[in-house]
Amino acid sequence: MTRIRRPALWLPGLALAAALVPLPAAAQDIAPVGDPIEVALTTGPLTPEEVLRSSALTFPSILEAFEREAAARADQLGADGAFDLMLKGEYYDRLTGYYSGGYGKVEARQPLRPYGAEVFGSYRVSNGDFPTYENYNYTNNLGEVKVGALFSLLRNRDIDSRRFAIEDTRLAASQAKLDVMLVQLNVQHEALRAYWRWVAAGQEIHVFEELLEIAEARQVGLAREVGEGARARISLTENEQNLLRRRTLLEQARRDFQTASNSLGYYLRGADGQMVIPTREMLPDLARMKPVTAPEALVATPVSEVIQSRPELQTFKIALERATNKVALRQNDLKPSLNASVELSRDFGQIGPGGPGFDSTDTVVGLTFSVPLQRRTAQGAVQRAEAELRETELRQRRIADQISTDVSNILANLGAAIKLANLADAEVKQANQMVAAERTRFRLGAGEFFLVNAREETAANAQIGAIRAQLAGRLAEASYNAATMNLKALGLE
After folding, report:
1. DSSP at 254
2. Residue 383: helix, strand or coil by DSSP?
3. Choosing a second label site near 319 at 20 to 30 A (CA), which of 89, 385, 409, 415?
4. Are 298 and 411 in contact (CB under 8 A)?
5. Range 28-57 burial, b when 16+ CB lie within 10 A, else e
6. Cα–Cα distance measured from residue 82 to residue 171, given in angstroms and rounded to the nearest whole number
């Protein structure tokens, strides 16, 4: 028994595909993160639940999606840093010369989100004499304390590049989380498809093995009869020809099973992340497995409601919000800049060399204004952002319609697959009855050897048809569960 230990995850994505179309061998990467969870891969019958659990916890694409989400969260943290408290120190002194003035200063600045504001406070103390053109450097003996604030009244009042980045990285992190869900849905969907193809390939081998065993047993009896002169040697030659054909069919079935095993092993992995190729001994007993769910039971919840929660559509909603924010940012660039400032300063202690003019409480307000006369760069950016917004809206509508159409097709395929499976089972029963009757006639000398072989191969073909009809139903059910985000059925709950 191999133990898989991996962080627990919670869920993602899928490629909607018509269930009756043969499953492509292509696979997608994925794996999960979270609290440690143990998964056991047994050497006994392999169940779909074990496959889903293994792929959910170990598949590289899922782990990659979680790392992308972590990176997006890191970007969000970095954007928040634009509003970090800033501390600044400054020291100025004269080592030689006629004047001896110098000072030290420490200042803290805190950006604020409303009105693009910034508040600050500083402390400065000086000593010595300054030339008249540096007169503003004087303080009283205990220094000067200053507090103030800056405000944006037009451009950058409601949005600027810093606030845009914070909101945009927050939305990007939400998109990354949805991408994890989408990837998980896709991987679990493909893992289920690979599992059922592997099971079907194993069943087909059994059919062709039985067909070959019948021909081999008949060869022994024919050889005895030919040796006794009871049957013409041509019968033995004809059966040898059937043996070769049936051995060819069996080898082809074994090849298909090995291919299906390799495809399933892409999703079935051990604790070290290495692929585990399943063997025939791990094939399950289908008689003990849950049958394919009828379409009537699947559509208990309106499909339209389920589709709205699809990660792709949720991602588009976030994309529209990001695009809207981008338009607002570009429109902000069109506005003129009008900034206001207010400062309050006070010196303390004994009056310094600067004189009594520095021994007061000063309140200062200010305004600055600027506007570009030509704003073509900003106008071009606005038009581009608006075009991208409209493009996203149209893409969202197209994807929603595509998902709805795919789900309807999956339901149609599932209903047809169940009916075809029932018909195939009936055909198998009739073919087996014909085989039994023809064998009886042959033993009694009323039948032909050619007809016996033809009946046996028709029965085998009917069994293969029944297996593939069941496979089509399983694939359709897996596609529907992925499309409607049935997390429990996909092993993501």
Report:
1. H
2. helix
3. 409
4. yes
5. bebbbbeeeeebebeeeebebebbbbbbbb
6. 17
Task: Say how many domains are in the chain.
Answer: 2
pLDDT at 344 over 80: yes
pLDDT of 304 over the 80 cut: no
Structure tokens at 90: 């400054």
Beta bridge partners of 191: none
- Go through the chain and tell me how many residues it has: 493
Domain coverage including residue 210? 2-77+171-321+388-483
124, part of any domain? yes
The reply to whether the predicted model has a pTM over 0.85 is no
Helix 233-265 / helix 161-228 crossing angle, nearest 10 deg: 160
How distant, in Å, are the alpha carbons of 204, 220, 249, 259 from that of 252?
10, 25, 5, 11
More confident position, 128 or 449: 128
Looking at residue 29, its pLDDT comes to 34
Domain shared by 12 and 160, yes or no: no
How far out from the chain centre does Cα 1 lie?
29
Confidence of residue 295 (pLDDT cuts 50, 70, 90): confident
- Residue 480, sorted as left (phi over 0), alpha (psi -120 to 50) or beta, turns out to be alpha
Give domain status of residue 491, yes or no: no
Three-state SS sequence of 59-101? CHHHHHHHHHHHHHHHHHHHHHHHHCCEEEEEEECCCCCCCCC
Helix (H, G, I), strand (E, B) or coil at 493: coil
DSSP string, 2-64: EEEEEE-----------TTSPPPS----B---SSEEEEEE-SSPPPHHHHHHHHHHH-HHHHH
Residue with tokens 């001994």, as numbered in its chain: 281
Query: Are the C-beta atoms of 35 and 57 separated by less than 8 Å?
Result: no
Residue 102 in tokens: 């110098």
Tokens coding 176: 């990354």
CATH number at residue 438: 1.20.1600.10
